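Lay summary

Proteins are chains of building blocks that fold into shapes. Our project writes down both the chain and a compact code for its shape. Here are two examples, one after the other.
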Amino acid sequence: MPESHLTVAGLSESQLLARIFPRLNNGPAEGAALLLGPGDDAAIVAAPDGRTLISIDTQVVDQDFRLLWRNGYRTTGFDVGWKAAAQNLSDINAMGARSTSMVVSLTLPPDTPVSWVEDFADGLSHAIRDLGAAGCSVAGGDLGRGRELAVTVAILGTLDGREPVLRSGARPGHTVALAGTAGLAAAGLALLESEVGVELLTPELRTIMDRQCRPLPPLAAGPAALAAGASSMLDISDGLVRDGGRLAAASGVVLDLDPAALKQLTEPLAAAADAVGGDPMDWVLGGGEDHGLLATFPADVQLPRGFAAIGSVEAPAATEGTGVKIAGRPADTVGWDHFAD
């Protein structure tokens, strides 16, 4: 059988793993916590400061991504591997910490091409390296057979002896700031779901589309925010308003966003809006999966590099609850919900 036609049904588990392991970045790395990697029944990972952060995310075909999009783009294994790494690395980043290791579970239909699985491993490995998480290693995982393609990644991290930045520390008078982007991934999703063929996309539109397939979380920003004295922080995975509302609820405050700052965030989305007829402000407020960081800082703190002020923290009025406002008016954008959408 030609190599290009080989599926996972044609290999044993050990043969498939033998193709995956060499593609993972598990060589010596500065600050690496992996003491024993793939090959035994369990990995051994160091806990550098005696505590371990842990998070987990799952991607399921036709729920979190499509293998073939309406615009004709075919999702590659590299895309899914990159995104699986990026969204998990971002969760650790949002605590002000750095990632140390991850384990990966793949559920594969029998007709999955072996080349797709190899590309997945390449995407996972490249994201770890290219996004700046060189101290993180793939410690192991699991392969299984199933009807639907699904990817689950559990990730570990360390605070290096410092205290985490939680969602619950925002106080009235603090500055609301954003690191990374908001709306680009949502604009990319709109392009993927549009009738504008992928072959017709300009380089600018293709870059926007790629931000949905391969997000770029600002991994240097989390530890920088912690060092600067951030009072609260979270990863924006489900939209600026929805996730901002979670931070506001945890802190018992209101986040009042600046319309001028929001308008600036819409500017890189103009070309996508022209192409598919979308509303850039809806993408900025409700679009998820950019995996930027929303944080608050005391007013006397200089914002660390990579953060831009987008609003302020206020106490809720006696007759109102916590939430997100824009220039004093409630923001009603819904954002992404995994069960409702």
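And here is the second example, written the same way.
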Amino acid sequence: MRYRTLGSLQVSAIGFGAMPLSIEGHPDERQALATVHAALDAGVTLVDTADSYHPPGGEPGAGELLVRRALAAYGGDTDSVLVATKGGRGRTADGGWTVNGDPRHLKQAARSSLDRLGVAAIGLYQLHKPDPSVPFADSLGALQELLTEGTIRFAGISNTNAAQLRLARQMLGERLVSVQNRYSPAVRDSEAELRLCADLGLAFLPWSPLGGISRSSLDGPSDPHGAGADRGSREVTGPYAAFHQVAREHGVSPQQTALAWLLAKSPTVIPIPGASRPLTIRNSAAAAGLTLSAAELAALDASSADGIDGSEPAVRS
């Protein structure tokens, strides 16, 4: 595993998005815990969750409690593991998603997350999404108070634009350490935010980083073990064909190739792919050791740019 900087911390270059472990369709407890443990065994030291990662009609914080149980049950050292969580979103009984950036709500949500995680301070607390009904500065003010009182150690923002990023940096200073926006081969509309994070030295955590790739893999078998991807299968065509071609040349999966492409975008990029099986997160973590040539990266850039057609379904983070 390679490591990258997040604030004053060093974390694994590939993180783990724990959302699939606790929302609808989640695996059973045994498999969920095994998936977290597989991530830790692979050297992953950044685990991302949120208080809203629970099934419709469920109790807030199910994902946080699961991560806590997984860490407690792990047989190895977890001192270097950074658990990041988020507040400001909720679920409706029919499976929808809500937004609440009211400062009072955010402060209470963070304190509840602190209790569920069972830590002295939340390592990284992120505003899940700007609330259009609340001035963004007011929501950031809640993060300021949480930092001052010691409830959270570092702050992050998610699903934000460049102007909001600059305001957050102005208000929170060096305690703002990350931005979590959607970015993948299929969706690249956070290019400006990615570049700004590189300029400011902020970690950029792409959520749903494999968008486009999993769907394209349906056009031809891919090896989930990351060895001999698509070997012996028919040629994959379409906007993401280059990811399959490069994967075949390296004997890895297209998913690993996509994550390596993201890592090459900037030294501040830390993808957080989701997983619900140990095999999947081990495959993702292995992308940290994959180095792509300049020519391969150029081909992947062109491939993913051609694939921006708005057809990829949104995945919440």
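What can we say about the second shape? The chain has eleven helices and eleven strands.
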